[in-house]
Amino acid sequence: MIPQIIAEAAAATAGVTGSLTLAVAGAGAAIGIGLVGMKSVEAVGRNPGAFGKVLTLSIIGMALAEANAIYALIIAFQGR
Fold it and tell me: Among residues of the chain, what percentage have pLDDT more than 90?
């Protein structure tokens, strides 16, 4: 029963290209960047004196979240 369901799902997604990979990775990166931005603004609101340190860490966090989308772009179009 389960192998039949997996085979049907594989047949249904046979035409799906890297667009699905990029969509999921892009959504994940957007959520990650939004969370980093939200928490950095919250941290600066609590302690304005730590602005420089929070800014540095938030830029690093956003870059790491965006790197996942870039990796997905490379993987999605590697076979073409």
Answer: 41
